[in-house]
Amino acid sequence: MLMTKLLANILGQIIVLFAQLLTAVRPLWRGARPENKTRIYCGNHTSNGDFVLIWTALPPHIRRMTRPVAASDYWLTTKVRSFVIKYVFRAVLVDRNPETRTDDPIAMMAEATDQGGSLIIFPEGKRNMGDDILLPLKTGIYHLASKRPNLEFVPVWISNLNRAMPKGEIIPLPLLCSVSFGTPIQIKEGEGKEEFLERVRNGMLAIATDLGESND
Fold first, then answer.
1. Which top CATH class is 2-210?
2. pLDDT tens digit string along 92-144?
3. Structure pTM?
4. What are the extents of the domains in the chain?
5. What is the DSSP string of the chain?
């Protein structure tokens, strides 16, 4: 177990260095400060490398407590992927297929936050490959917020990674990328699903607009 932890730490440092060298990723704390508290980072999703870039952009002491939510049906297909996602990123692995799912994803995420972990989530639910800058948000973050109303949901906007790592590519192109963190959002008492999702969506789009990227 000690060797597994040591190897995971080394691989984690290599992944961070690799991401920094290829993208020169800049963390932009626009509405939030990098605080050591449990948060849900809600990012736009255009590339397979999205959660790696958010993870890399976080300060080391926050990165250590932050776990991506990832699809088990993708990440557990090979031994290498399985090791990286389980031991380097310590991801919360969820089954995207309701028919084969045995665990409640919302309960799994809530339990992870109860243990002091922050999460990286992509509330669009899938990669955005269309012309719309942001797809409608899925209801999962609302259900998580309802279960844990004290959680902060931080809108996050990733810029340029879809061009640095186009679909089908394994090795990213060397392009400058940024990860912008917006103003944290908490669910209000009695707040409905549509209102909460709209506030999170607007928080994400506000960053894109400030960066000159929004087409809404």
1. alpha beta
2. 999 988 888 889 999 999 999 999 999 999 999 988 888 889 999 999 999 99
3. 0.91
4. 2-210
5. -HHHHHHHHHHHHHHHHHHHHHH--EEEESS----SS-EEEEE---STTHHHHHHHHS-HHHHTTEEEEEEHHHHTSSHHHHHIIIIIS--EEE-S-TTT--S-HHHHHHHHHHTT-EEEE-TTSS---SSSSSPPPPTHHHHHHHH-TT-EEEEEEEESHHHHS-TT-SSPP----EEEE---B-PPTT--HHHHHHHHHHHHHHHHHHTT----
